[in-house]
Design goal:
42% of the residues lie in helices and 14% in strands. The protein is an alpha/beta fold.
């Protein structure tokens, strides 16, 4: 019998690829999106859409009971819905923690707990490495930002539920087709500028969205429960490694410069002011600056490797593939 999977946050960058992979794996796929969300990358006719109101217990109960009566309970749930950018720090907690808690409580209350509940968190819930070693799942979690703290609070809540079959995915920085933040770095290089905020020898980790999605389904279909799984391509890079590959692919010469620490505050304020005028949250803000300046974001993904995860994309081949997609789709000229 075809297994049923619900993927929340399905209209987003990672979510849309999760839906594609679920369909490729022959799951009966339900995509959780808001009625106002774009379906640009969710155009497969077999997708069943569901609009979950996480702010209301009554609305959650009503809709979950409706689907239980019509199609039965979901075998798997990937809870990818969340907030990565917010104008107010409290918004992170209301979406990433409160909504997750209400959703899980509704599943418990209505006796429709899935075989596996996968919570998509972030490496931000750990914060950077506390030494020169890669971040591991047993590292003390000390997030630097409100976003990271909101994700950690949701993780801690899941651990309080006895016998709840969850697994937490903590991806490092994700890039790939359709992604918009790392794309800004590539776009800057395409315009001839190579900007450094943190130290040039900073230790970084990356993961291509295709590898991340594969890792999530490996965790989903494994026997692993009640633990965090960190995801990267298991290599360590510097900012220069990233930039050099992009420059090579685009055949660009750049003006390279590092923004001095004493200037960063003014630059960040300028970005935030411009963001307010546009009604947007800029990629560089006071919260994110803490993460940009941290030295070691490398990741130990050995636990995932032991489950059979083998990354296929590293920056050397992942960035060219991603840049080609941006060119083909008119994001880069």
């Amino acid at each position: 019998m075809q297994k049923k999977i619900l993927i929340t946050g399905a209209s987003g960058f990672i979510g849309s690829f999760l839906v594609e992979e679920a369909l490729n794996r022959n799951y009966q796929t339900f995509a959780g999106i808001r009625s106002s969300s774009s379906k640009q990358f969710l155009n497969q006719p077999s997708i069943k859409f569901i609009d979950l109101d996480y702010t209301s217990n009554i609305a959650l109960d009503t809709l979950l009971q409706k689907y239980q009566n019509e199609v039965g309970k979901f075998d798997y749930i990937i809870h990818n819905a969340g907030l990565t950018k917010a104008k107010k720090n409290e918004d992170y907690f209301s979406v990433n923690y409160d909504n997750t808690k209400r959703f899980v409580e509704a599943l418990l209350r209505n006796n429709i707990v899935p075989e596996k509940f996968v919570y998509i968190s972030s490496l931000a819930s750990y914060g950077p490495s506390l030494n020169l070693k890669p971040i591991s799942p047993d590292q003390i979690q000390q997030p630097l930002t409100a976003y990271g703290r909101s994700k950690l609070k949701a993780e801690e809540y899941l651990y309080t539920i006895k016998d709840f079959p969850f697994v937490i995915i903590n991806p490092t920085a994700v890039y790939g087709p359709r992604e918009k933040d790392a794309f800004l770095l590539m776009q800057t290089i395409a315009r001839g500028l190579e900007v450094y905020i943190g130290p040039k020898n900073q230790m970084l980790s990356w993961v291509h969205v295709y590898d991340l999605v594969n890792a999530i389904f490996i965790a989903l279909e494994s026997n692993v429960v009640q633990q965090n799984i960190l995801v990267s391509d298991n290599k360590i890079y510097t900012p220069q490694d990233f930039n050099n590959i992009v420059k090579s692919v685009l055949n660009k010469k750049t003006l390279s410069f590092t923004i001095p620490k004493f200037v960063l505050k003014s630059v960040t304020n300028a970005f935030e002011f411009a963001g307010k005028l546009k009604g947007q949250v800029p990629i560089l803000n006071k919260e994110r600056l803490k993460e940009f300046e941290a030295f070691n974001w490398s990741v130990d993904s050995s636990a995932l490797l032991s489950l059979g995860y083998e990354p296929k994309y590293f920056l050397e081949n992942g960035l060219p593939q991603t840049l080609e997609w941006y060119k083909t789709n008119g994001w880069l000229k």
